[in-house]
């Protein structure tokens, strides 16, 4: 981030595991939970306390354009 001259407050963290969302929160970033990728069958991204969530990759670009 320092190399790119950005701050945690202006960075979005997209993750497909709860530890990704926790890391984003710990770093002070806005988090987006991805309901695709390595998500376990019995896992629910609704429980991860992310700022935003997407269930399909096609939802990511419209979300990014809206925030």
Any key phrases for this structure?
25% helix, HAD-like_hydrolase_sf, three-stranded parallel sheet, 18% strand, 67 residues, Phosphoglycolate phosphatase, Rossmann fold, HAD-like_sf, alpha/beta, single chain, globular, phosphoglycolate phosphatase activity, metal-binding
Q: What is the number of E strands?
A: 3
Largest sheet: 3 strands, parallel
Report how far the terminal alpha carbons are from each other. 20 Å
Assigned CATH superfamily: HAD superfamily/HAD-like
Rg, alpha carbons: 12 Å
What is the C-level CATH assignment?
Answer: Alpha Beta
**Mean pLDDT, all residues:** 93
Described by its quaternary structure, the protein is single chain
Number of helices: 2
Bin the helical content: 25-40%
- SSE pattern: EHEEH
Residue fraction in strands: 15-25%
Question: Runs with pLDDT <50, length 5+?
Answer: none
Spatial strand sequence of the major β-sheet: 1-2-3
| Integer count of domains | 1
Reported CATH architecture: 3-Layer(aba) Sandwich
Q: Which structural category fits the helices and strands?
A: alpha/beta
């Amino acid at each position: 981030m320092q190399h790119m001259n950005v701050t945690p407050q202006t960075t979005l963290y997209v993750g497909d595991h709860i530890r990704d969302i926790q890391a984003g929160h710990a770093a002070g970033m806005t988090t987006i939970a991805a309901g695709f990728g390595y998500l376990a069958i019995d896992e629910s991204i609704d429980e991860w306390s992310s700022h935003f969530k997407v269930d399909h990759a096609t939802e990511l670009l419209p979300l990014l354009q809206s925030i």
